[in-house]
């Protein structure tokens, strides 16, 4: 009986130690997230990336908390997203809901990259909506939206903005950049997978055999993509020609 009693005590101790280790790991993980969210400007050390002057466009890029945006800019972010995405949402099981989307985009944890015309600063041209968070025990920068006005698409700006996100993720100690994309948004899917080399994340819903056979996409019209942030990116932080190859449901 003594041996059994001792073993029971050992198991209890092992369980307590495991719980303590998990708590310490979680606390350390959230400390990194909190530190990222406490920054005044996540782009502070990325000065070369504050402007983009290529392919006929000349813009400035700022990184701001949603709570720091003026009402006109907040409304513009919503309207651009709605104009670009409502039809795609309505073609999915999610549907489109103004109130829910506004709530998501104005969550106090939201950060934005705002792209403005360098001459006419009141002319806003693109946005990225992102958050620092934890997903499946990873510290992540989650890209909820990357939306561009028609006049600045297909000019390399979308790729440039995603490179900024990857650098911010590296600088703040995130382990992944993650995003969500509609399967029926072919252009966006090709942009992330083919051009930026994002891959399907382990958390992405898997198509069943029935889905593959009958092409029934109901309930799984989206895919979660991700890219691991590696330390070798550090050497590229101060170069405009970095080679690093982001829920976002996007028009890029």
Quick structural summary:
The chain contains 6 helices and 8 strands; from the N terminus they run H-E-E-H-H-E-E-E-H-E-H-E-H-E. It has 252 residues and is α+β, with helices and mostly antiparallel strands.
Explained architecture:
It is a single chain. This protein is an alpha+beta fold and 252 residues long. It folds into 2 domains: 1-38; 40-236, Gcn5-related N-acetyltransferase (GNAT) (Aminopeptidase, 3-Layer(aba) Sandwich). Helix content is 38%, strand content 23%. An 8-stranded mixed beta sheet has the order 1-2-3-4-5-6-8-7, with helices on both faces. The chain is globular. The N and C termini lie far apart (68 Å). Mean pLDDT is 86; it is low at 233-248.
CATH superfamily of the largest domain: Gcn5-related N-acetyltransferase (GNAT)
**Could you name the CATH topology of the largest domain?**
Aminopeptidase
Overall structural class, as computed from helix and strand content, comes to alpha+beta
State the strand order across the main sheet: 1-2-3-4-5-6-8-7
In the CATH hierarchy, what is the class of the largest domain?
Alpha Beta
Report the total helices.
Answer: 6
Distance, first to last CA:
68 Å
Percent of residues in beta strands: 15-25%
Write the layout of secondary structure elements.
Blueprint: H1 2-37, E1 51-54, E2 57-65, H2 71-90, H3 98-105, E3 111-117, E4 124-135, E5 138-148, H4 157-171, E6 176-182, H5 186-195, E7 199-200, H6 209-214, E8 222-228
What brief labels describe this structure?
252 residues, alpha+beta, Aminopeptidase, 8-stranded mixed sheet, 6 helices, 38% helix
